[in-house]
Amino acid sequence: xxxxxxxxxxxxxxxxxxxxxxxxxxxxxxxxxxxxxxxxxxxxxxxxxxxxxxxxxxxxxxxxxxxxxxxxxxxxxxxxxxxxxxxxxxxxxxxxxxxxxxxxxxxxxxxxxxxxxxxxxxxxxxxxxxxxxxxxxxxxxxxxxxxxxxxxxxxxxxxxxxxxxxxxxxxxxxxxxxxxxxxxxxxxxxxxxxxxxxxxxxxxxxxxxxxxxxxxxxxxxxxxxxxxxxxxxxxxxxxxxxxxxxxxxxxxxxxxxxxxxxxxxxxxxxxxxxxxxxxxxxxxxxxxxxxxxxxxxxxxxxxxxxxxxxxxxxxxxxxxxxxxxxxxxxxxxxxxxxxxxxxxxxxxxxxxxxxxxxxxxxxxxxxxxxxxxxxxxxxxxxxxxxxxxxxxxxxxxxxxxxxxxxxxxxxxxxxxxxxxxxxxxxxxxxxxxxxxxxxxxxxxxxxxxxxxxxxxxxxxxxxxxxxxxxxxxxxxxxxxxxxxxxxxxxxxxxxxxxxxxxxxxxxxxxxxxxxxxxxxxxxxxxxxxxxxxxxxxxxxxxxxxxxxxxxxxxxxxxxxxxxxxxxxxxxxxxxxxxxxxxxxxxxxxxxxxxxxxxxxxxxxxxxxxxxxxxxxxxxxxxxxxxxxxxxxxxxxxxxxxx
Amino acid sequence: xxxxxxxxxxxxxxxxxxxxxxxxxxxxxxxxxxxxxxxxxxxxxxxxxxxxxxxxxxxxxxxxxxxxxxxxxxxxxxxxxxxxxxxxxxxxxxxxxxxxxxxxxxxxxxxxxxxxxxxxxxxxxxxxxxxxxxxxxxxxxxxxxxxxxxxxxxxxxxxxxxxxxxxxxxxxxxxxxxxxxxxxxxxxxxxxxxxxxxxxxxxxxxxxxxxxxxxxxxxxxxxxxxxxxxxxxxxxxxxxxxxxxxxxxxxxxxxxxxxxxxxxxxxxxxxxxxxxxxxxxxxxxxxxxxxxxxxxxxxxxxxxxxxxxxxxxxxxxxxxxxxxxxxxxxxxxxxxxxxxxxxxxxxxxxxxxxxxxxxxxxxxxxxxxxxxxxxxxxxxxxxxxxxxxxxxxxxxxxxxxxxxxxxxxxxxxxxxxxx
Lengths: 642, 419
Prior knowledge:
Chain A is mostly helical. Chain A has helices at 2-26, 37-57, 82-105, 112-131, 135-153, 181-210, 220-246, 254-258, 264-273, 275-290, 292-302, 305-331, 335-355, 357-360, 363-393, 402-407, 409-423, 429-443, 445-448, 451-475, 490-511, 516-525, 528-546, 554-561, 567-612, 619-641, and strands spanning 62-69, 74-80, 166-173, 175-179. In chain B, 74% of the residues lie in helices and 1% in strands.
């Protein structure tokens, strides 16, 4: 029963989007074809219903297995545990709401078939990643995510509308500092590929070493013990490169910034709530089953040093990325790039929180996961609002004043609620989750010093500041927009309203301490230290609200909005290495060419002419040569036999 | 009836035919045909494959002699070819040193006359060059052979070594192995293509077979492997000189001359394996088939040169057979030599053989391209077509050559008493 439902959950969205894909191939932009997206969204709705069924009716720990290669122990294994049930519902719900939003947002688009097919393919892939226990079926979904991401980011591949660009067209900072959709799509897929390749090898190595690919069945501790410190490091780094590139941690963050060239629905679904969260989700999932806290106690005795290094590494990569993302977002002028940077920052915090589970136990994973859910709803809401604003003001830069706010009342209110809920201001949703995060960072002080907690506090402060800046620059203190096309917006507003309401639902769950772990969140939230940090965050929010720009700091701001020159890595250094390799290949080719077409022919030519030059034509010469050689031969053999 | 008697009868017949040809040229044709068909009555059945091929080569040479309108000694020339063929047929069979040497001379001397004939003037200056070297070679060969037999009787290793070296040097000079190949390019270019094709085809067989027999009948297993290193070195030198020299040669006859030098190198390479009795059949099969390839190929190419070209398909098949493309005859011969040499431990010789096959490709294809022209029915194309058909016989894999030769060797054709 569960297997059938699982199959339907994955297949129905894809099948429902095939009609419009085909229709768009054969009769693009036909009137009746523009009605087919409703079918696609209906497919998403079916997935949502099935996800809700799994959330409420299926007991924790159930598995659904679709057999594939049973002799090799490789099957489609789906597991319904805490992480997958919540994440699955979250994915399906967000996908559905954004689908509804997209019905209006993308209504006039010229490539609907492409858009809806990949949108639904993405949803199916994400659900596959979320529910998979088997690493191979997870990788299949993983690849689907990458493919859909490339396809959707590069949706407006003709690069004909500057509205979809990232950066200011024509601006150069030694390299071109603007990116059209086609380049955005390429950057996404190439960066993700760099991470995917080591991940494939790591999965293959795990299969070769343990004989199983089911995350819940792999004997992680024996595996790490067998590999030793270096082996564990190599294996896990290779494996985690996949999540790190997918979740745009430094130094792989550039693709996420230029992924904003895609439609806003894509940014909302893929690049805030789900796809990028897939990286952190996979990290949480394997941490859940690795149970590193057990190793932490044993490490001195059995040499699991490699695991400790991995988790320290993940902790600090996460914190560094979150700091970087927060500061970059603070300087951004473009709506979506600000939100993208802030997404990267939050993902870093998710990695860091999950990494603390090595020292503190499973609570780290819960903290990271609840932050993931809060962030997903909040960020998706903000992205959808940004999309609405882009539609209305016809620019991707943060413009908008109180007049605009009065015309877009719902958008303004929703933005206020979402930013308040996300920044960590007591007593709203993120406050409790962030307090728990402060607590786990405090918990690792004994092992790693004060640095993690300090980084977290700085990040939270800046985060809150730029959320307020987003609100301010778009609805209060921004420029007067040049265009104002306020029409329709019913679907769009409904979508982000419901999305925002989910934040309240989460707050309700926390407040009601619906689960034991949430009780711990509440307990931590009441501590003095948490409250002080909450006040700090509030102050930062107010500053961002009333003074979003500071002229004196504009040089620093430009540095930040230029993303601290990180694009140089993607656009200058890596291509330079590539071109260097190409040049070496060129020289080798020319060398082989010379060798085969000049070297060898000339060599043989010369020897041939020398051989033929013996033939002078005179008999006396030949006789001399022959007699001479014969005598020499006799001489040699006389000596040899002596 | 003893096989010797059959051979003698054929010899007499051929000679009488030559005599009668002074008056009636056609008489010689009849006589020669019968003389060449008689030896097919072989004493043991396995011997037939060898005799049959030699007879076929003989007939092909005779047929090619009818391509020029007339020669100075029409009638006698085909008898001379028949004499060479009969000598070749007999040399493998006999165990008597005197008869082996007689066969050697009988195969060599007719060529002295044949080289002079053509359809215009007689080529005396070419003959002088040729005869000088041939006489030198014959002297060395005979002295070497006799000394070899004597030193094997008295069991003197030093003398055996010296006589072996003399024998092989004589062999190289006779067939044209580098570094004693100087006469080959000049003679092949200056002479008339048809008699040259006779020298280049059937006249090369007896020296090798004779040398092989003498060495194997007198050898002691202790010393022979060491001595064969010398033949290996000579053969590799010959291969490289022949193939590389042919790459830039200008006249087509000169290309064929260098090609002959190279092919003699391939055949001499197989000598490296003769000290191993289990590999000897394979080696001899390789030698024999390579001699066949060389014979038919040279007849075909020289006939094409005489006729200023032959059918393009034919010339390409001849070229590809020389290069060693399966399933043509040239592939199988080289394969057997390669296997024999490799199994005998001379890997460097085997590698040299393979490399040389590659090096030889440009000039054979150049030959094929320059000699190729549209098909027209004339005597040249008939002869060439026949040689091409002979190259194609190994489309049936040559177990039917290898097995008789293997049983011939096992029956003791290279040792002891032979019935």
